[in-house]
Specification:
Blueprint lengths: L1 H17 L6 H8 L3 H7 L3 H25 L6 H18 L1 H7 L5 H24 L9 H21 L5 H16 L4
Helix pairs in contact: 1-2, 1-4, 1-6, 4-5, 4-7, 5-6, 5-9, 7-8, 8-9
């Protein structure tokens, strides 16, 4: 477990400092102090390192978003959207390695992890909005899935425009998602 953690920490540092292309399995092994041949004992290839590192980020994001959603009264769609968008924006700003993995589309495994995460979050967000009376009970779950998909795509644009995420693009994403969800307001 210690060596796996060292590998993931080294990959995280390389992604943060030098970007995706620099975080090769060889470079990660060197950074972690593990011979390249031994790296394959812990991870069969670089994509497995990327996937495990993204899973670690997804767990952290889930905790942060859960705290934001449960720790706020969320009496408007704006407050509900902010409770998801702001923690994501802040997390991506603090963890550029996550941005490299999340939006890169470097492997199908990473894309699947992001889609699965978004699907779970969209379903949870749908339940919360219905429970709080912010959208009607007959709002299709698809509406929230699409809201997450649009938000995800616009975050991609925002973080391609600026490493800190372009605020104007994030604000437009927020406006689009809120305006769309208002069409389902209770």
């Amino acid at each position: 477990m210690e060596r796996r953690r060292a590998i993931l920490d080294a990959a995280e540092a390389l992604l943060r400092e030098q970007g995706y292309e620099a975080a090769t399995l060889k470079a990660v092994g060197e950074r972690a102090g593990i011979p390249v041949a031994s790296m394959y004992h812990y991870f069969p290839d670089r994509h497995q390192v990327d996937a495990e590192l993204l899973r670690r980020h997804l767990r952290a994001i889930e905790e942060i978003v859960t705290a934001a959603l449960e720790g706020s009264p969320l009496s408007t769609l704006r407050e509900a959207a902010d409770a998801v968008i702001d923690p994501l924006r802040d997390y991506f700003r603090e963890h550029p390695s996550c941005v490299e993995l999340w939006f890169s589309g470097r492997s199908e495994a990473l894309a699947v992890l992001v889609r699965e995460f978004d699907a779970v979050q969209a379903d949870r967000f749908w339940r919360l909005l219905v429970e709080r009376g912010l959208v009607s009970g007959d709002t299709p779950r698809l509406a929230l899935q699409l809201a997450f998909e649009v938000g995800n795509r616009l975050f991609d644009v925002a973080f391609r425009q600026s490493p800190a995420g372009d605020d104007a693009t994030i604000d437009e994403a927020r406006r689009m998602v809120i305006a769309y969800l208002k069409t389902y307001a209770a």
